[in-house]
Amino acid sequence: MRSIARERGKAGGSVVAAAVAFGLVIFCWPGRGAGSGGQAAQVREEVTVALKLLQAYVTTKDGKPVTDLTAADFEVTDNGKVMPVTHFENHVIGGDSVAPGAPVEGPRLNRKFFFFFDFAFTDPRSARKAREAALHFMDTAVRPGDEVGVLSYSPMRGLTIHEYLTTDHARVRDIVDAFGLRAVTGRAESLTNFLYADELKHMQDPTLGGSPGGAFQPAKGSSGGGDSAANAFFQEQARAQAAGVVDEGRRQGYTDQARQFAQTFANLARAMRYVPGWKNLILFSSGISRALIYGSRRSATVPNMDASNPDQMMAELNAYDNAQSNTGVRTEFSDALKELKNANSPIYAIDCTPTAGEMDINNPVGTSISSRELTGKDSLVQLAAESGGKYFGNTMDTKNALTAVSDITSAFYVLGYVVPAAWDGAFHKIKVRVVRPGCKVVSQNGYYNPKPFQEYSRFERLLQMTDLALSDNPMTQLPAEAPMALVPVVIGGWTSLVAYAGLSGPAAASIIGKKTDAYLLIYNEEQGKTAVKSFRMKPPADGPKDSITVFAVQTKPGRYSCRMIIQNTETGVAARGLASVSFANPVASTIWLDPPLLLRASTEFADIGAAPEATLSAIFGYDPGQYAPVTGDLPAGPQRVFAAVRCTMGEPNAELDVTASEAQGAAKSAVPLDVVDKHQVKSLRFYLLELNFGDLKPGSHTLTIAVRDRAGVQTNETTVTFTVK
Predict the structure, then answer these.
(1) What is the pLDDT of residues 688-701, one digit of tens each?
(2) How far apart are CA 9 and CA 217, in angstroms?
(3) pLDDT of 89-141, one tens digit each?
(4) Rounded (10°) CA dihedral 370, 372, 375, 380
(5) I want to staple 551 with a disulfide (CB 3.0 to 4.6 A). Which of 290, 358, 499, 714 is the partner?
């Protein structure tokens, strides 16, 4: 179904892609309708059913995984109604199997892990142990298909998303390995820092316009973009992450840190509940002091209000106040526990309290009232229990604890059943039962139907954008595909990277509106650094049409992987493109050629850049009213293609001859060409060439453009690779 949704995105079904943002379901379309009233035919899709997928862990009563069950062994109820299991997967160590023949196919749910490092309530020595344990887990327990992310919490920055769920385990390992040793910024951290900074700019000056600012502002007329508490949390995060500005509350000490910590879990849980599947959260923390949440059992005697001895009276009052729980902390912590119940994110809490305070690691309650009140063990036990996870109390055995986590999550089943599609955000209670005697099953308590994008809180929108931009297979929505290409060029003597992605007319109509933002993520594969660029797109004045979104960014030569996201911030409809490129320093030459830009004849095309001089037509010097860039693959057979070529010359008046050749494997042949247009701006000459390919075969092809002066002294060539299908 995911491939169907993507195809529909190409054909104009990206509205559906936005509709599943933060959803838990895969959709099935019964058919198409046609437009009427003299308008051009449009694809009309009605979502009628959804495939709900859930994960279940089954063990014997003594905790050993049960690995030989079938779909017939499970009974699933949704809001009390028994649902036939139509999709079934068995994931075990050594190989996975999927039962064929399900009426509605869906993506497989692999294991998902988030490392959560608490740097606020954990001492540096314990934090180093946590880092070593996480690295051991990456090296010994993570499977190739597992998705892993990295989160942290610190007093100054609050919640940081270092890396979102990804199968690039080497990148995750590098981030964890750097904690406390060197600065490494993950892709997700770079993206969220950029978005937080932009939000902070508009919080400080709401009159700003024309830029992606306010991307997380609720749409006009909406319910407000989520509840006020969640939005206040997002604003606090923006101040802390982007500007290092910490309000007075955070300077007040342990109590307010505890409230912020609890708020972080509550907001994270609210957002996580819309991410499909079981999200295993491995928490390294010492927890929040029990006395702060529930009050102290010592020094709780009601004070003797003896006005004749004011010093003693004040001392007794202070002792009594200190023995009471903090109402704010207790409320925030209770809210976090409530949200975690329905987040489908079991917390495996690794207690990082120094071992000197641990008297009996097998007793989760502790051995004395004193130790329980001073440590955060009880809070960690509750976080684990309420979320469906497990508490591990011996910090001397953190690696063994993570081995247990791996064992718990190593064998699981994926059950799928069909339900009517709904967009009301309602909660569904789920119960999973195994009919085979002697089995114990652990599964999610329920799920939330998707809700309209306008109702997302700002933090939910941030997490949705992170998933959309960085996930290998975005689960919060299926974006329309935007074929993307990268062209290294020299502009004004500086090496630059031109990135562009195409949208079909129907896709552009559903995405490009009054508030549509384009984001470009540039990841330097050699240096491990990420840069983010963005601009607010302007819709074509003459209505929706095939469109190209363009970025031109100064970059040093190197190896880059890039992602472009185009999103309507009012509806959530989005498209995504991915591309990679590697280029070296320009070789000194009297003639320099940038790689050619392949074009096709077109009179209906929108060329959209951050500024008029940053469009493809301005950079490559062609008429956007007559030509459009080729996006995607070329069809097989005879083809007439145009190429825009930029040529920088040491001798501006030199006369040049231009030739072209095409190669597929070892076969190479000349390509007839005509110079359609030639003009010059100072030492930069623009060529528009018409190329006539005789018979293109499916596969990869390389086009070579060569120039030389009439005397044959100055010569150079450039290439571009394209695919024929």
Answers:
(1) 999 999 888 899 99
(2) 26
(3) 888 754 444 444 444 444 456 789 999 999 888 888 888 889 999 999 999 99
(4) 180
(5) 499
Residue 635: pLDDT band with limits 50, 70, 90 = very high
CA distance 13 to 575: 11
Question: For residue 371, is pLDDT > 60?
Answer: no
Q: Which of 131, 240, 139, 133 is nearest to 180 (CA)?
A: 131
Higher pLDDT, 97 or 390: 390
Task: DSSP letter for 391, please.
Answer: E
Q: What region does 294 belong to: left with phi over 0, alpha with psi -120 to 50, or beta? A: alpha
Q: Which helix or strand (DSSP H or E) is residue 136 part of?
A: helix 124-140
Beta strands in 393-493 (DSSP E): 412-420, 427-434, 439-443, 446-448, 480-481, 484-491
- Residues 579-623 have pLDDT tens digits of 999 988 877 778 888 999 999 999 889 999 998 999 999 999 999
Residue 515, token pair as written in the block: 């508030």
Rounded-to-integer distance, Cα 675 and Cα 663, Å: 21
| Full DSSP string of 54-104 | EEEEEEETTSPBP----GGGEEEEETTEEE---EEEEEETTEEEE-S--SS
Token pair recorded at residue 638: 């005879």
Q: How many CB atoms lie within 10 A of CB 678?
A: 15
Tell me if 486 sits within 8 A of 560, measured CB to CB. yes
- Distance, in Å, from the CA atom of 600 to the CA atom of 691, rounded to the nearest integer, reads 10
Q: Answer yes or no: is pLDDT of 46 > 70.
A: no
Q: What is the Cα–Cα distance from 596 to 393, expressed in whole angstroms? A: 62
* Rama region for 387: left / alpha / beta (φ>0; ψ in -120 to 50; rest): alpha
Going by pLDDT thresholds of 50, 70 and 90, the confidence category of residue 272 is confident
Structure tokens that stand for 342 in this block: 């329905």
**CB burial string 234-254: b at 16+ within 10 A, e below:** bbbbbbbbbeeeeeeebeeee
Q: Contact at 8 Å (CB) between 516 and 497?
A: no
Residue that has been written with the tokens 């718990």 in this structure = 408
Strand pairing report for 81-83 and 112-118: unpaired
Q: CA nearest 639: which of 707, 698, 594?
A: 698
Running DSSP on this structure, what letter comes out for residue 426?
A: -
Distance CA 135, CA 587 (A): 42
The string of pLDDT tens digits covering residues 201-226 is 666 665 555 444 455 555 444 444 44
Would you tell me how many other CB atoms lie within 10 Å of the CB of residue 298? 12
Distance CA 126, CA 132 (A): 10
Average model confidence (pLDDT) for the chain? 78
Instruction: Provide the token pair at 306.
Output: 């003896």
Residue 723: C-alpha distances to residues 444, 628, 635, 637, 664 (Å) = 45, 18, 9, 13, 10
Token readout for 372 is: 């329980």
Q: Please give the backbone phi and psi of residue 388, each rounded to the nearest 5 degrees, phi first.
A: 90, 15
Q: Which single residue is written with the structure tokens 């079934």?
A: 88
Helix (H) or strand (E) holding 348: strand 347-351
Q: Tell me the pLDDT band of 16, cut-offs 50, 70 and 90.
A: very low
For the ranges 67-71, 213-217, 337-341, 517-521, the lowest mean pLDDT is seen at: 213-217
**Token digits of residue 560:** 């880059």
| pLDDT greater than 60 at residue 12 | no
